[in-house]
Design a protein that fits this description.
The chain is α+β, with helices and mostly antiparallel strands. The chain contains five helices and nine strands. Strands 1, 2, 3, 4, 5, 6 and 9 form a seven-stranded mixed sheet that branches. It has a two-stranded antiparallel ribbon with strand order 7-8. This is Membrane or secreted protein.
Length: about 210
């Protein structure tokens, strides 16, 4: 009897616990929708679209030299982990006139990963501010039209985030200057939204 109990504790319980938590993420986890149906970035720059894409959206502004840390944090902690998923992309919005700065940044990022899914959209001040306002967050752009926060946008152009974050309550975006936040929060939330779409795809395939 003792041997059976020990075997259960050592081998069965860890497996049960793993299956419980795995099923919690893959089958029951759903990232809350905070803002529905934001505008498509194609209205600003028709070289980039949000519709039918899972997008990490950022506003790097015109002071790109001082935003390299944000870009590299995102590249290393989020992009490199998930960029091979279908329909996944990064979209960074910058003011027009910064194309050469973006090219230099992409070149540096390209030394660390395939940057094919790093997309940059260019707009004027009014377009960028108007688009940011459509997110309906509690955040703001600075004088360079930038914010350190990045956002998860689903395939239907809905802003996803957290409604019961332990630190902020409603959490619209993720502070890309904080490696801890990217590791401990954003990575988990990206996993959840990708799992949502994988599950939906499996259900659709099974019903055919």
């Amino acid at each position: 009897m003792k041997k059976t109990f020990v075997l259960v504790v050592l081998f069965i319980l860890p497996i049960v616990a793993y299956l419980f938590f795995a099923s919690g993420i893959n089958n029951f986890g759903k990232l809350p929708t905070l803002t529905e149906n934001i505008g498509d970035i194609a209205n600003i720059d028709d070289n980039v679209i949000l519709q039918d894409k899972i997008t990490i959206l950022g506003f790097l502004g015109s002071d790109l030299e001082n935003k390299k840390g944000i870009a590299f944090n995102l590249n290393q902690k989020i992009y490199k982990r998930f960029y091979e998923f279908n329909d996944f992309q990064f979209v960074m919005i910058v003011p027009k006139g910064n194309e050469s700065k973006v090219a230099a940044l992409k070149s540096e990022l390209g030394n660390l990963a395939d940057v094919a899914k790093w997309k940059f959209a260019y707009g004027d001040k009014e377009q960028i501010q108007r688009f940011f306002n459509e997110l309906k967050t509690d955040l703001a752009l600075d004088e360079n039209l930038a914010t350190p926060y990045v956002f998860i946008i689903d395939k239907d152009r809905n802003l996803r985030g957290r409604t019961n974050d332990e630190d902020e309550g409603t959490k619209f975006g993720f502070d890309a200057t904080s490696v801890a936040e990217l590791n401990n929060k954003m990575e988990d939330d990206v996993k959840i939204i990708l799992a949502e779409y994988r599950l939906t795809l499996k259900k659709n395939n099974a019903s055919r």
